[in-house]
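Risk register update: the risk that structure generation would not scale has been downgraded. Supporting records follow, first protein first.
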Amino acid sequence: MIVLFDSSQLSHEELIEIRIMREKHSWFAPIVYFDQPDLGKVIHAFNADLAGYCASADTIVDLMTMVQAVNGGKLSYTKGFCDLLRKYGFPVVENSQIKN
């Protein structure tokens, strides 16, 4: 089951609960969406090891590609999310949007 969460509505504690649910249930594939993120929220969400990460800068094609990857059991980071990481100074390997 793929569930999309708005990062602006999630507390650190809720991200931990989502991570625990993902660890317990292999069928649970949470995706987090960033509209106006702050660095702390990005770090907490990324450390939660969710199935997918996307940002408001993504196109519908980017989002659909990510959902298809997550539905196939892969971890996925959209181009918009990778750009967000770069903005905060994190190194991002090219072609790293979809992970096995």
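Supporting record for the second protein:
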Amino acid sequence: MIMRTFACKLSLLLLIITGCTSGEIIKESPYAKNIDHMRSKNINFMFTAYDRGIDNPNNDRRAYYKIFIDKVESGRTTSGLESQKKIFETKLDVNRHLLTVQKWVLNKKTGRYVKLNNIDQPKPNFVYFTIPPGKIVILEMVSDKNRRTLFTVKQY
């Protein structure tokens, strides 16, 4: 009984000691290298998009997104599998902006990209965001297999 009590107290003490260390490991941002690249190129906005929940390689189509900023076509992302991150970078004015996306997928039969029907487009397919002075904004869009979309905005 005394040994069990001692073991419990020792376990509790070790838990407290290991949980209170000051040398915590801080995980580096996955965008750290991109931030340096963006600053060197004078770019202040990055959009990334990918699909989550694709569990079969046969369903992982090649795709890209057409990007519209403030209702003007501004370019497109890189191409890749739906499950891979696709990237678009640009320099925007300090202001509030509207980003809208259109998803395009590769038609294997014709070898050409075709716009998905509106019912199959990510929902919602737009987001408002602000570019503050001196900051880099990274907007990430993640869609699930039900076409529901989550936007995340980070500032650096």
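The longest helix spans residues 2-19. On this basis the risk owner (M.S.) recommends closing the item.
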